[in-house]
Amino acid sequence: MRDSHSPTSSSGIFDSLVSATVGAWTAYSTATIDYWWGAVRRGATPLDLASDLMSWSITMSDRKRPEWAHENRVIKEWPLARLRDYSAPDADPDMIATVILPPQAGHDSSIIDFTADQSQVVVGRESGCHRIYCLDWIGATQETKDAGIDDYMAILRETAELLGGKVNLVGDCQGGWTATIFTALYPERVNTLAIAGAPIDFHAGEPLIRDWVDAIAPGGDMTIYRSVVEANNGVLPGRFLLDGFKALQPDQEFSRSIQLLANLHDAEHVERYRQFEDWFQWTQALPGVFYLWVVEHLFIRNSLIKGELVVEGRIVDLAAIECPLFLMAGQTDHITPADQVWALADYASTPASMIGRQSSTGGHLGLFMGHESLRNHWQVIFKEMAGLSTPTPDDDPEVLTDEPSQPVASKATSARKTPRRKSADVKPAAVSKPAEEAPDAEAAATRISTTRVPAKRTPTEESAASPKPKPPAVGSVGAAESATGIRRQTSPVEEPRSHED
């Protein structure tokens, strides 16, 4: 594990800038040739060319709020979230309900129901999870700016109670560690847990975003994060996160724009561009207290994996998790390397046969809405989850499908667990914001670098082996990568051109 002051970070940034420059030049050259060749074939006049430039400019700038692709109904609303019902009309009321927690990095939650044929929630319903719901995060306001992690736990408790007392949780990115924390605190309320692109162990792997953070805020200094929140009256603007995502891979932003010009007369390409940009460019704020808590405790201190995280006055003990686990990672995810996701398998107490890993060929966003992920991986996950959710055990899978992209330590030999600690009560002051002071109830952008799940270490060993704390990225959904990277004649919202979301 590298030292926080290692020159590796500057080297990683330099390499990424070189790669971005080459990528931008390649995209420009290809798109320019395509555009002019198309213009010649059309017999375009100077007036036609001027019209193209006007249409190109309007299409890039004309944005609207993203929409949910399929019919649903809101059955519960809090100041911080809505609960949307996507259940099948003939769903068995005795089936355990499934709840999806979308990413929470300054974008709309509709990414999980992106288009008619790219919908994680609909794939879940059609794969057997007929009672299926999702949370829809609401942007922070002056009334909810002081909301903290305890408020989100309260929402999940109410959701579980409303849906029968026990649920399946599916968490994407930040939604993944939120679901993991809840499962560790309330294992009796969770039937199965699935996480995708969730940074459970933020210090695993080598995401590019850590290199940038090391260079901009060395030593884990929180000043820049606090100053941004203070300058915005206690909230973290979604635009701040978006600009950070774009800076990570500027060639992706440029590539999507220039490819739009090259494909301006392809109606399907233009529509795909509009759909993605409406989602990607539209932002919403995060509660400042919650954001700063995430940065400090989950990213800089890596407290969740060390067994030091305090939520609702209790230590969050990952060993308390015994339910079936579905772990999903992207082979080209530069936001959350696979090691950060696989780590949960080594710290939970779930039997080896009930841990299933899935590895998508795409990047970060592609995990949640890419065609390959939905077709080849989420169908498998949801089908097995459904089998574990029926009133009878007849269709329960005996072993979960385990298909990581690279070899990992055998579950039978790598499941070295530290004995579970009893959750100790601690002083409320240890939590960033007491629940009673917050409203009623209302993130980090490479390749898979290792090939085995690391053996679990005790908090003392982990502390000794870990580098000095590093500040996290300003968010965690990442640039418009795999799901957004535009290839010639390819959807801008499918898989990435250059190993990104």
UniProtKB/TrEMBL annotation:
Compositionally biased region (Low complexity): 463-478
Q: Where is the composition biased (Polar residues)?
A: 403-416
Q: Cross-referenced Gene3D superfamilies, in alphabetical order?
A: alpha/beta hydrolase (3.40.50.1820)
List, alphabetically, the Pfam families matched: DUF3141
Annotated region Disordered: the residues are 388-501
Task: From the Swiss-Prot or TrEMBL record, give the protein name.
Answer: Poly(3-hydroxyalkanoate) synthetase
Origin organism is Brevibacterium daeguense
